[in-house]
Write a structure and sequence with these properties.
With 73 residues, the protein is of the alpha+beta class. It has one helix and four strands. A hairpin with a 7-residue loop joins β2 and β3. It starts with a strand and ends with a helix. 0% of the residues are buried.
């Protein structure tokens, strides 16, 4: 199963690694340039690294929410 998140000027793509069981591929796709070519950066993550990434995303989202609430107060 592949998931693509559309973000401002980039797409984030997450999918199981086709060659290494248990690993996950994370890719960042940029906008097309004048020749129609998209920039790409990617990494394959082990199950432990996926867990660390999930934890980091949760912590960052919580910190962003707290900061948003402080600004609104």
């Amino acid at each position: 199963m592949k998931t693509t998140i559309k973000a401002h000027m980039k797409d984030v793509e997450v999918r199981p690694n086709a060659g290494v069981s248990g690993y996950v591929d994370l890719a960042l796709w940029g906008e097309k340039d004048q020749w129609g070519v998209r920039s790409y950066s990617g990494v394959s993550l082990s199950p432990d690294q996926v867990g660390a990434l999930l934890f980091g995303l949760e912590q960052a989202a919580e910190a962003a929410d707290i900061a948003k609430e402080r600004v609104a107060a």
